[in-house]
Protein backbone atom coordinates (compact mmCIF):
# COMPACT_ATOMS: atom_id res chain seq x y z
CA UNK A 1 0.00 0.00 0.00
CA UNK A 2 1.05 3.59 -0.59
CA UNK A 3 -0.27 6.81 0.86
CA UNK A 4 -2.20 7.34 -2.39
CA UNK A 5 -4.42 4.44 -1.29
CA UNK A 6 -5.75 6.65 1.51
CA UNK A 7 -6.43 9.79 -0.55
CA UNK A 8 -10.18 9.34 0.02
CA UNK A 9 -9.59 10.23 3.70
CA UNK A 10 -8.97 13.71 5.08
CA UNK A 11 -7.12 12.21 8.07
CA UNK A 12 -5.80 8.74 8.83
CA UNK A 13 -3.36 6.66 10.85
CA UNK A 14 -2.53 3.16 9.61
CA UNK A 15 0.02 0.98 11.40
CA UNK A 16 2.35 -0.99 9.13
CA UNK A 17 3.81 -4.01 10.96
CA UNK A 18 4.79 -5.45 7.57
CA UNK A 19 7.53 -2.84 7.14
CA UNK A 20 8.41 -1.90 10.73
CA UNK A 21 12.16 -2.23 11.35
CA UNK A 22 13.79 -2.20 14.82
CA UNK A 23 14.88 1.38 14.12
CA UNK A 24 11.29 2.40 13.25
CA UNK A 25 10.00 0.87 16.47
CA UNK A 26 12.60 2.69 18.58
CA UNK A 27 11.93 5.92 16.69
CA UNK A 28 8.22 5.57 17.51
CA UNK A 29 9.04 5.05 21.17
CA UNK A 30 11.32 8.09 21.54
CA UNK A 31 10.19 10.59 18.89
CA UNK A 32 6.79 12.32 18.68
CA UNK A 33 7.20 12.76 14.90
CA UNK A 34 5.24 9.65 13.88
CA UNK A 35 4.53 11.12 10.45
CA UNK A 36 8.16 10.40 9.52
CA UNK A 37 8.05 6.81 10.71
CA UNK A 38 7.84 3.97 8.17
CA UNK A 39 5.85 1.87 10.64
CA UNK A 40 2.97 4.38 10.57
CA UNK A 41 1.15 5.76 7.54
CA UNK A 42 -0.24 9.22 8.30
CA UNK A 43 0.30 12.82 7.27
CA UNK A 44 3.98 13.79 7.48
CA UNK A 45 3.20 16.59 9.92
CA UNK A 46 1.50 14.25 12.41
CA UNK A 47 2.96 14.26 15.92
CA UNK A 48 1.98 12.36 19.06
CA UNK A 49 3.54 14.03 22.07
CA UNK A 50 1.96 11.71 24.63
CA UNK A 51 4.50 9.02 25.55
CA UNK A 52 1.82 6.60 26.89
CA UNK A 53 0.05 6.73 23.50
CA UNK A 54 3.28 6.11 21.61
CA UNK A 55 4.13 3.27 24.00
CA UNK A 56 0.70 1.74 23.34
CA UNK A 57 1.27 1.93 19.58
CA UNK A 58 4.78 0.47 20.00
CA UNK A 59 3.45 -2.51 21.97
CA UNK A 60 0.59 -2.96 19.52
CA UNK A 61 3.01 -3.07 16.58
CA UNK A 62 5.15 -5.65 18.38
CA UNK A 63 2.09 -7.81 18.96
CA UNK A 64 0.97 -7.44 15.33
CA UNK A 65 4.45 -8.43 14.09
CA UNK A 66 4.33 -11.52 16.32
CA UNK A 67 0.86 -12.51 15.09
CA UNK A 68 1.86 -12.05 11.46
CA UNK A 69 4.86 -14.35 11.98
CA UNK A 70 2.64 -16.95 13.65
CA UNK A 71 -0.22 -16.80 11.12
CA UNK A 72 1.04 -19.69 8.95
CA UNK A 73 1.96 -22.11 11.78
CA UNK A 74 -1.22 -21.34 13.74
CA UNK A 75 -3.39 -21.94 10.65
CA UNK A 76 -1.63 -25.26 9.96
CA UNK A 77 -1.95 -26.42 13.57
CA UNK A 78 -5.59 -25.31 13.65
CA UNK A 79 -6.43 -27.19 10.46
CA UNK A 80 -4.82 -30.35 11.87
CA UNK A 81 -6.61 -30.00 15.21
CA UNK A 82 -10.01 -29.46 13.57
CA UNK A 83 -9.45 -32.39 11.22
CA UNK A 84 -8.51 -34.68 14.11
CA UNK A 85 -11.47 -33.55 16.21
CA UNK A 86 -13.86 -34.10 13.31
CA UNK A 87 -12.43 -37.59 12.78
CA UNK A 88 -12.98 -38.40 16.47
CA UNK A 89 -16.48 -36.93 16.19
CA UNK A 90 -17.20 -39.19 13.20
CA UNK A 91 -16.00 -42.25 15.12
CA UNK A 92 -18.11 -41.37 18.16
CA UNK A 93 -21.13 -41.13 15.86
CA UNK A 94 -20.41 -44.49 14.24
CA UNK A 95 -18.93 -43.19 10.98
CA UNK A 96 -15.48 -44.59 10.16
CA UNK A 97 -14.68 -42.09 7.44
CA UNK A 98 -12.07 -39.43 6.77
CA UNK A 99 -13.52 -35.94 7.35
CA UNK A 100 -14.29 -33.82 4.29
CA UNK A 101 -13.67 -30.15 5.08
CA UNK A 102 -16.31 -29.04 2.57
CA UNK A 103 -19.07 -31.41 3.73
CA UNK A 104 -22.22 -30.55 5.66
CA UNK A 105 -21.03 -32.62 8.62
CA UNK A 106 -17.65 -30.91 9.06
CA UNK A 107 -17.56 -28.47 11.99
CA UNK A 108 -15.20 -25.68 12.99
CA UNK A 109 -13.71 -25.66 16.48
CA UNK A 110 -16.51 -23.27 17.48
CA UNK A 111 -19.12 -25.72 16.20
CA UNK A 112 -17.46 -28.65 17.99
CA UNK A 113 -17.33 -26.83 21.33
CA UNK A 114 -20.95 -25.65 21.10
CA UNK A 115 -23.00 -27.99 18.90
CA UNK A 116 -26.27 -26.06 19.13
CA UNK A 117 -27.73 -25.10 15.75
CA UNK A 118 -31.50 -25.40 16.23
CA UNK A 119 -33.72 -22.39 16.71
CA UNK A 120 -35.74 -22.02 19.89
CA UNK A 121 -39.18 -23.07 18.65
CA UNK A 122 -40.79 -21.71 21.82
CA UNK A 123 -40.07 -18.21 20.47
CA UNK A 124 -42.69 -17.56 17.79
CA UNK A 125 -42.10 -15.13 14.88
CA UNK A 126 -44.51 -12.68 16.50
CA UNK A 127 -42.48 -12.71 19.75
CA UNK A 128 -40.40 -9.57 20.37
CA UNK A 129 -37.40 -11.86 21.05
CA UNK A 130 -37.62 -13.63 17.69
CA UNK A 131 -35.22 -11.38 15.77
CA UNK A 132 -32.53 -11.61 18.45
CA UNK A 133 -32.95 -15.39 18.78
CA UNK A 134 -32.67 -15.89 15.02
CA UNK A 135 -29.66 -13.58 14.73
CA UNK A 136 -27.68 -15.17 17.55
CA UNK A 137 -27.94 -18.60 15.91
CA UNK A 138 -27.15 -17.17 12.46
CA UNK A 139 -24.05 -15.48 13.91
CA UNK A 140 -22.94 -18.79 15.39
CA UNK A 141 -23.59 -20.84 12.25
CA UNK A 142 -21.67 -18.25 10.18
CA UNK A 143 -18.39 -19.78 11.45
CA UNK A 144 -19.08 -23.01 9.51
CA UNK A 145 -18.51 -23.94 5.86
CA UNK A 146 -21.04 -23.26 3.10
CA UNK A 147 -22.43 -26.82 2.94
CA UNK A 148 -22.97 -26.91 6.72
CA UNK A 149 -24.73 -23.53 6.68
CA UNK A 150 -26.93 -24.51 3.76
CA UNK A 151 -27.94 -27.76 5.49
CA UNK A 152 -28.80 -26.00 8.77
CA UNK A 153 -30.83 -23.24 7.10
CA UNK A 154 -32.82 -25.53 4.79
CA UNK A 155 -33.16 -28.74 6.80
CA UNK A 156 -33.05 -27.68 10.44
CA UNK A 157 -34.57 -24.21 10.23
CA UNK A 158 -36.86 -24.91 7.26
CA UNK A 159 -35.91 -21.58 5.69
CA UNK A 160 -34.63 -20.44 2.30
CA UNK A 161 -30.83 -20.35 1.86
CA UNK A 162 -29.83 -17.66 -0.66
CA UNK A 163 -26.05 -17.60 -0.95
CA UNK A 164 -22.70 -17.81 0.84
CA UNK A 165 -20.20 -15.04 0.09
CA UNK A 166 -16.40 -15.21 0.32
CA UNK A 167 -15.27 -11.63 -0.23
CA UNK A 168 -12.10 -9.96 -1.43
CA UNK A 169 -10.07 -7.40 0.51
CA UNK A 170 -8.35 -5.08 -1.96
CA UNK A 171 -5.91 -3.70 0.63
CA UNK A 172 -4.67 -7.10 1.81
CA UNK A 173 -5.15 -9.02 -1.48
CA UNK A 174 -6.92 -11.80 0.41
CA UNK A 175 -10.41 -13.12 1.20
CA UNK A 176 -11.05 -11.66 4.64
CA UNK A 177 -14.85 -11.37 4.88
CA UNK A 178 -17.42 -14.17 4.75
CA UNK A 179 -21.18 -13.93 5.09
CA UNK A 180 -24.37 -15.72 4.13
CA UNK A 181 -27.85 -14.54 3.28
CA UNK A 182 -31.13 -16.37 3.87
CA UNK A 183 -34.88 -15.68 4.00
CA UNK A 184 -37.48 -17.05 6.39
CA UNK A 185 -39.69 -18.09 3.43
CA UNK A 186 -39.21 -18.70 -0.28
CA UNK A 187 -39.91 -16.15 -2.99
CA UNK A 188 -42.30 -13.21 -2.57
CA UNK A 189 -43.73 -14.67 0.67
CA UNK A 190 -40.52 -13.87 2.59
CA UNK A 191 -41.00 -11.68 5.65
CA UNK A 192 -37.35 -11.57 6.71
CA UNK A 193 -34.09 -11.26 4.80
CA UNK A 194 -31.08 -11.98 7.05
CA UNK A 195 -27.40 -11.15 6.44
CA UNK A 196 -24.98 -12.89 8.83
CA UNK A 197 -21.27 -12.00 8.83
CA UNK A 198 -18.64 -14.45 10.08
CA UNK A 199 -16.43 -13.42 13.00
CA UNK A 200 -12.74 -14.18 13.44
CA UNK A 201 -12.06 -17.95 13.19
CA UNK A 202 -10.34 -19.56 16.18
CA UNK A 203 -7.05 -20.28 14.37
CA UNK A 204 -6.76 -17.23 12.12
CA UNK A 205 -3.89 -15.21 13.63
CA UNK A 206 -3.94 -12.75 10.71
CA UNK A 207 -7.50 -11.82 11.62
CA UNK A 208 -6.60 -11.65 15.33
CA UNK A 209 -4.08 -9.03 14.27
CA UNK A 210 -6.75 -7.10 12.38
CA UNK A 211 -9.02 -7.12 15.44
CA UNK A 212 -6.21 -5.66 17.57
CA UNK A 213 -5.14 -3.09 14.99
CA UNK A 214 -6.10 0.47 16.07
CA UNK A 215 -5.62 1.95 12.59
CA UNK A 216 -8.33 4.29 11.33
CA UNK A 217 -9.51 6.55 8.52
CA UNK A 218 -11.55 9.71 8.80
CA UNK A 219 -14.17 9.57 6.07
CA UNK A 220 -15.92 12.86 5.16
CA UNK A 221 -19.51 13.03 6.53
CA UNK A 222 -18.99 9.74 8.39
CA UNK A 223 -16.13 10.10 10.88
CA UNK A 224 -13.25 7.86 11.90
CA UNK A 225 -13.73 4.19 11.00
CA UNK A 226 -11.66 1.15 11.97
CA UNK A 227 -9.30 0.53 9.03
CA UNK A 228 -9.21 -3.29 9.07
CA UNK A 229 -13.00 -3.62 9.08
CA UNK A 230 -13.27 -0.91 6.43
CA UNK A 231 -10.87 -2.93 4.24
CA UNK A 232 -12.67 -6.22 4.86
CA UNK A 233 -16.07 -4.75 4.04
CA UNK A 234 -14.90 -3.65 0.60
CA UNK A 235 -13.48 -0.12 0.74
CA UNK A 236 -11.63 0.78 -2.46
CA UNK A 237 -8.05 1.94 -2.89
CA UNK A 238 -7.92 5.68 -3.69
CA UNK A 239 -11.73 5.96 -3.55
CA UNK A 240 -12.88 4.68 -0.16
CA UNK A 241 -16.65 4.22 -0.37
CA UNK A 242 -17.96 5.15 -3.84
CA UNK A 243 -21.62 4.25 -4.18
CA UNK A 244 -20.93 1.86 -7.06
CA UNK A 245 -17.94 -0.24 -8.10
CA UNK A 246 -17.31 -2.74 -10.86
CA UNK A 247 -16.57 -6.32 -9.92
CA UNK A 248 -12.97 -7.29 -10.53
CA UNK A 249 -12.64 -7.68 -14.28
CA UNK A 250 -11.72 -11.18 -15.40
CA UNK A 251 -12.05 -12.49 -11.86
CA UNK A 252 -15.78 -12.92 -11.16
CA UNK A 253 -15.06 -14.97 -8.02
CA UNK A 254 -13.51 -11.90 -6.37
CA UNK A 255 -16.33 -9.78 -5.01
CA UNK A 256 -16.47 -7.01 -2.42
CA UNK A 257 -18.61 -7.71 0.64
CA UNK A 258 -20.54 -4.46 0.96
CA UNK A 259 -21.34 -3.97 -2.71
CA UNK A 260 -22.21 -7.58 -3.55
CA UNK A 261 -24.35 -8.22 -0.47
CA UNK A 262 -26.06 -4.82 -0.71
CA UNK A 263 -27.10 -5.53 -4.29
CA UNK A 264 -28.33 -9.02 -3.34
CA UNK A 265 -30.37 -7.60 -0.46
CA UNK A 266 -31.92 -4.93 -2.68
CA UNK A 267 -32.99 -7.59 -5.16
CA UNK A 268 -34.52 -9.77 -2.44
CA UNK A 269 -36.43 -6.86 -0.89
CA UNK A 270 -37.75 -5.79 -4.28
CA UNK A 271 -38.98 -9.33 -4.93
CA UNK A 272 -40.58 -9.67 -1.48
CA UNK A 273 -42.80 -6.66 -0.70
CA UNK A 274 -43.42 -7.73 2.92
CA UNK A 275 -39.81 -8.56 3.79
CA UNK A 276 -37.71 -6.67 6.31
CA UNK A 277 -33.94 -6.81 6.76
CA UNK A 278 -31.86 -8.13 9.67
CA UNK A 279 -28.05 -7.80 9.79
CA UNK A 280 -25.99 -9.69 12.35
CA UNK A 281 -22.61 -11.04 13.34
CA UNK A 282 -20.43 -12.09 16.28
CA UNK A 283 -17.09 -10.45 17.16
CA UNK A 284 -15.53 -8.95 14.04
CA UNK A 285 -18.65 -10.18 12.19
CA UNK A 286 -20.65 -7.83 14.40
CA UNK A 287 -18.30 -4.98 13.48
CA UNK A 288 -18.86 -5.72 9.78
CA UNK A 289 -22.63 -5.91 10.36
CA UNK A 290 -22.93 -2.46 11.95
CA UNK A 291 -20.58 -0.90 9.40
CA UNK A 292 -22.56 -2.54 6.58
CA UNK A 293 -25.75 -0.84 7.75
CA UNK A 294 -23.93 2.43 8.44
CA UNK A 295 -22.39 2.59 4.96
CA UNK A 296 -25.82 1.92 3.42
CA UNK A 297 -27.08 4.96 5.31
CA UNK A 298 -23.98 6.89 4.15
CA UNK A 299 -24.95 6.05 0.55
CA UNK A 300 -28.54 7.09 1.24
CA UNK A 301 -29.99 3.69 0.40
CA UNK A 302 -33.36 4.85 1.69
CA UNK A 303 -35.41 2.00 0.18
CA UNK A 304 -33.30 -0.53 2.10
CA UNK A 305 -32.89 1.48 5.31
CA UNK A 306 -36.66 2.01 5.56
CA UNK A 307 -37.05 -1.77 5.71
CA UNK A 308 -34.22 -2.41 8.16
CA UNK A 309 -35.73 -4.26 11.11
CA UNK A 310 -32.54 -4.40 13.15
CA UNK A 311 -28.78 -4.81 13.47
CA UNK A 312 -27.98 -7.38 16.15
CA UNK A 313 -24.33 -7.78 17.15
CA UNK A 314 -22.75 -10.08 19.72
CA UNK A 315 -19.39 -9.28 21.31
CA UNK A 316 -18.86 -6.51 18.76
CA UNK A 317 -15.54 -4.58 18.91
CA UNK A 318 -15.45 -0.79 18.63
CA UNK A 319 -15.68 0.44 15.04
CA UNK A 320 -15.43 4.23 15.08
CA UNK A 321 -15.35 7.59 16.84
CA UNK A 322 -18.01 9.91 18.24
CA UNK A 323 -18.80 11.39 14.82
CA UNK A 324 -19.40 7.95 13.31
CA UNK A 325 -21.42 7.00 16.40
CA UNK A 326 -23.69 10.03 15.97
CA UNK A 327 -24.13 9.28 12.27
CA UNK A 328 -24.98 5.63 12.98
CA UNK A 329 -27.41 6.43 15.78
CA UNK A 330 -29.11 9.10 13.68
CA UNK A 331 -29.72 6.59 10.91
CA UNK A 332 -30.08 3.26 12.75
CA UNK A 333 -31.96 4.33 15.87
CA UNK A 334 -34.51 6.74 14.43
CA UNK A 335 -37.44 6.72 14.47
CA UNK A 336 -36.94 3.69 16.76
CA UNK A 337 -34.07 1.61 18.16
CA UNK A 338 -32.68 -0.77 15.55
CA UNK A 339 -29.08 -1.34 16.69
CA UNK A 340 -28.81 -3.86 19.53
CA UNK A 341 -25.36 -4.70 20.87
CA UNK A 342 -25.19 -7.80 23.11
CA UNK A 343 -22.22 -8.35 25.43
CA UNK A 344 -21.40 -11.03 27.99
CA UNK A 345 -19.56 -10.75 31.33
CA UNK A 346 -15.80 -10.26 30.84
CA UNK A 347 -15.69 -10.94 27.10
CA UNK A 348 -12.58 -9.07 25.81
CA UNK A 349 -13.84 -8.62 22.23
CA UNK A 350 -15.97 -5.50 22.93
CA UNK A 351 -12.87 -3.83 24.42
CA UNK A 352 -10.91 -4.07 21.16
CA UNK A 353 -8.94 -2.47 19.62
CA UNK A 354 -8.17 -0.95 23.02
CA UNK A 355 -5.38 1.40 21.85
CA UNK A 356 -5.57 5.11 21.19
CA UNK A 357 -7.74 7.82 22.65
CA UNK A 358 -11.51 7.75 23.17
CA UNK A 359 -11.66 10.26 20.30
CA UNK A 360 -10.76 7.41 17.95
CA UNK A 361 -12.84 4.46 19.16
CA UNK A 362 -15.93 4.12 21.32
CA UNK A 363 -19.14 2.11 21.47
CA UNK A 364 -22.59 3.35 20.53
CA UNK A 365 -26.12 2.04 20.42
CA UNK A 366 -28.19 0.15 22.97
CA UNK A 367 -26.07 -2.34 24.95
CA UNK A 368 -27.71 -5.43 26.44
CA UNK A 369 -25.14 -6.83 28.87
CA UNK A 370 -25.43 -10.25 30.50
CA UNK A 371 -23.32 -11.06 33.56
CA UNK A 372 -22.03 -14.56 34.39
CA UNK A 373 -25.39 -15.42 35.96
CA UNK A 374 -27.19 -14.21 32.81
CA UNK A 375 -28.74 -11.24 34.58
CA UNK A 376 -29.54 -8.56 31.99
CA UNK A 377 -28.52 -4.92 32.29
CA UNK A 378 -29.50 -2.46 29.54
CA UNK A 379 -27.28 0.59 29.04
CA UNK A 380 -27.06 3.34 26.44
CA UNK A 381 -23.44 2.56 25.46
TrEMBL record:
Matching CDD domains: Lipase_3
One GO term (biological process): lipid metabolic process
GO molecular function ontology, one term from the record: triacylglycerol lipase activity
Keywords tagged on the record: Membrane, Transmembrane, Transmembrane helix
A Pfam family hit: Lipase_3
Alphabetized Gene3D superfamilies for the sequence: alpha/beta hydrolase (3.40.50.1820)
Coiled coil ranges: none
Every Fungal lipase-type domain range: 194-355
InterPro entries (alphabetical): AB_hydrolase_fold, Fungal_lipase-type, OBL-like
Tagged with keyword Transmembrane: yes
TM annotation in the entry: 57-81
The protein's name in its UniProt record: Fungal lipase-type domain-containing protein
The organism of origin for this protein: Aegilops tauschii subsp. strangulata (Goatgrass)
Lineage: Eukaryota, Viridiplantae, Streptophyta, Embryophyta, Tracheophyta
